[in-house]
Design brief:
- The chain has 3 helices and 29 strands.
- It has about 375 residues and is mainly beta.
- It has 3 domains: about 70 residues, Immunoglobulin-like, CATH 2.60.40; about 180 residues, no CATH class; about 80 residues, PDZ domain (Pdz3 Domain, Roll).
- A 6-stranded antiparallel β-barrel has the order 9-18-19-24-23-20. A 5-stranded mixed sheet has the order 1-7-6-3-4, with no helix packed on it. It has a 3-stranded antiparallel sheet with strand order 26-27-28.
- The longest helix is centred in the N-terminal third of the chain and has 27 residues.
- The chain starts with a helix and ends with a strand.
Length: about 375
């Protein structure tokens, strides 16, 4: 009897271990993948997992057993992941972009972002007109990182909109629509009177952010640009900022702070009283994107147009980067590509590089942060 119990326990442990492995594998499969035409899609699968590649709900091809699929047609596709060909698990959205030519830039520019709605970045109790302490936001479900998009069915675009709607409530309960983890939710909240004409919710909110960053490339055909190479996250919530619009402006570099061990360096610049370059329409984990209207402000060398390389075409070894550490001056510096992450199709961590140029090391201490971000808070 004891022997049977022992065998049963061992089998249960093995079963749980296998189940755990499958769960980890499934969670490691990204929800969204962006590749270029002719690039390999790497979908990790194990025994029993299958990916049906579809376009407009028609199955194009089945990927299984760790096959690498080269996509040769541009457009939006979906990989439907299933277990043992019968249990649907998830959809993976695949954007296949056309091969294109761009001009590498490397210059510094100013960035101003405006959020969709107002972002909740903090909470604190407030003192009412009766000198008592209140927390109006308690039990509403609103937490830091949520975005308030409407009050009493009126759209909220700025902190001024929120202030106006809360004050006009005269202390009566209001209905708030907000976004939490990409889901739109609704709650009721009763503002607290703090003076004869002012009512508050006890929320710290923000509707804009600004800073400086490196322009990665310019596409002369579409007149669009990419910058930073990573998404802009809120300094308090550490979440990707959902923007409604943005401005792309010139900047004046004020200072370069050299990095040290455990303390990365950074460039400090100003975006005030600068010339307009263009508009920003997207903030993603791969960087920010927009349209250039004043190309002369970027000092672009049109003779350096080149075709974007696929991951399989990139090689380890010596390379160069473009970098601007002085106003209106872009220079080329030596680096070494030590490792390439060819299986990573879903974020910006595509390679490991080492700065080898002594000039750049002397000026910066290595790679420095290009976005000295500052934001505007309002407590309401």
């Amino acid at each position: 009897m004891k022997k049977h119990q022992l065998i049963f326990k061992i089998l249960m442990i093995i079963l749980l271990l296998v189940l755990y492995i499958y769960i980890v594998y499934i969670q490691s499969i990204p929800d969204n993948i962006v590749v270029f035409e002719g690039e390999v899609i790497n979908l990790k699968t194990i025994l029993g997992l299958k990916a049906d590649l579809t376009q407009e709900d028609d199955v194009i091809e089945t990927i299984s057993s760790n096959q690498n699929k080269v996509i040769n047609s541009v457009g939006k596709k979906t990989a439907k992941i299933s277990l043992f060909d019968s249990i649907f698990l998830k959809d993976v959205n695949i954007d296949v972009l056309p091969r294109t030519k761009v001009i590498p830039v490397g210059s510094i520019a100013g960035i101003k972002l405006y959020t969709s709605g107002v972002l909740v970045v903090g909470m604190s109790e407030i003192q009412g007109i009766d000198n008592k302490k209140y927390k109006p936001y308690e039990n509403t479900g609103i937490v830091e990182g949520d975005t308030i998009v409407s009050v009493n069915s009126n759209l909220i675009n700025t902190t001024e909109d929120l202030i106006d709607k809360v004050n006009s409530s005269s202390g009566n309960e209001i209905s708030i629509q907000y976004i939490h983890n990409e889901k739109t939710l609704q709650c009721s909240i009763k503002p607290v009177q703090t003076s004869n004409s002012e009512y508050k919710l006890g929320l710290w909110v923000r509707d804009s952010a600004a800073g400086v960053g490196t322009v990665s490339f310019y596409d002369p055909e579409s007149k669009r640009f990419g910058a930073l190479g990573h998404g802009i996250t809120d300094i308090d919530t550490e979440q990707l900022i959902d923007i409604s619009s943005g401005e792309f402006v010139t900047t004046k570099i004020l200072n370069v702070i050299k990095g040290e061990s455990g303390n990365p360096g950074r460039i400090q610049g100003t975006v005030e009283n600068q010339k307009n370059i263009g508009t920003i329409y997207k903030n993603t984990k791969f960087g920010i994107y927009g349209t250039v209207e004043n190309i002369s402000s970027l000092e672009i060398d049109t003779s350096k147009e080149m075709e974007l390389a696929l991951r399989d075409e990139i090689q380890t070894g010596k390379a160069t980067i473009l970098c601007s550490l002085d106003n209106e001056k872009v220079e080329e510096y030596e680096i070494e590509i030590e490792k390439i992450y060819k299986e990573n199709n879903y974020d910006n961590k595509s390679m490991l590089i080492k700065i080898t140029d002594k000039r750049l090391l002397e000026k910066t201490g290595g790679i420095i942060q290009r976005n000295e971000w500052f934001s505007y808070y309002t407590k309401w």
